[in-house]
Amino acid sequence: MTNKDVIIIGAGASGLMCAMAAGRHRRRVVVLDHAKKPGQKIIMSGGGRCNFTNTGVEAENFISHNPHFVKSALSRFSQWDFLEMISTHHIPYHERDHGQLFCNNSSSDILEMLLNECKKVKVDIRVGTTIDKISQMEDGGFSVSTSRGILKSQSLVVATGGLSIPGAGASPLGYRIAEQFNIKVWPTRPGLVPFTLHPPDKEKLSGLPGISVDATVTVGHHSFRENILFTHRGLSGPAILQISSMWPPGEAVCINLLPDINLEETFKKAQSTSPKRKVKSLLSDFLPKRLVAAMVGEFPADQALHALSHNKFRSIAQNIHQWHLKPGGTEGYRTAEVTLGGVDCNAVSSKTMEARQVKGLFFTGEVLDVTGWLGGYNLQWAWSSGWCAGQYV
Ligand code: FDA
């Protein structure tokens, strides 16, 4: 049997950050993970370059049933605090669109930094360890039965992440632990995930895989303007991934394929300057020909502009500016970057990440009902929440 001050389950982004912070407070910390290696999602993040944070992190960039919950942790360990760590370790990075910060070299720079910091404060990381049972002892401490024996501690941190990419170690253990302690778990679903299509739309768009266009995608009052990418299964690209997290299954998304122009006015002008031009020829000035060809079923593409009324122009423009598409579903946890829903934030202190009703039990990172937008927000949440918990465990 091993006694520690703190047991952390999950050697991912938030678990390692929490371990480092707790170790700096001279807490004896063990981190347990069933995966063979720590930080697998850090390694695969940002296409191997880890979009580790964003210069513009705000509470508005997160989805949660308690939208205020993230504010405290994000301000106490901000993107600038993480950048200071990066600079201390001389990790080269660069900024891309929308304030996204990426490693110049590789995601492993970030993982190595965390592992080195953990090593400095003697954090004990045990990978390949299965968790069999968790119980709270009479003195308030925790006992964790694992494939490698029983461990006991004063504090237990659940940093088991979400359900996406099961091959990278994802499991529902964190949600089960919450339920074991009567803590509410909001239903989960995949987020930042490509859409699949119903058969008729799949057929209609079958010639388009690989085409990417700058578009605005809207659901309810949420809109994102970025690229959409046509794939063999359906639609992906940053604008689609972003909106997927806000998409109520079964509803249509509205896609504006030409957000920069007023197509109705463009048609009207072209009718007077080049009346013999065909509709599809004009559209091909702005959109890839294959995409125009796929959309032609919806309007008189082969007609000359002089033959069409202004009402017709308006209806063609509407098809392009307000393309209503009802996704069949999503690609699911297999390819999702994150999990929506999770451990109820109202059951957890936003300052310490400690469960309100269970002293010594902490939740950090994605296992909580906090989901960031695409762009480095999810890792920043892992760093911020992990660091905060590390001050109190
Ligand atoms: P994380 O998933 O990192 O860690 C959880 C740990 O718990 C894992 O090591 C797992 O093995 C362990 N665990 C789970 N169940 C267990 C069990 N039963 N027993 C023991 N251990 C268990 N975000 C971002 O901001 N920028 C980006 O560039 C990307 N890119 C990206 C790409 C891809 C492909 C994915 C899947 C995700 C991203 N993300 C991202 C999201 C980001 O990686 C994610 O939100 C954080 O890693 C969450 O950190 P956590 O520590 O909460 O969980």
UniProtKB/TrEMBL annotation:
The keyword Flavoprotein applies. Residues 189-338 form the RsdA/BaiN/AoA(So)-like insert domain. It holds the Pfam family HI0933_like_1st. Residues 5-391 form the RsdA/BaiN/AoA(So)-like Rossmann fold-like domain. Its cofactor is FAD. Keywords: FAD, Flavoprotein. It comes from the Bacteria. NCBIfam families: aminoacetone oxidase family FAD-binding enzyme. PANTHER family: OS12G0638800 PROTEIN. This is Flavoprotein, HI0933 family.
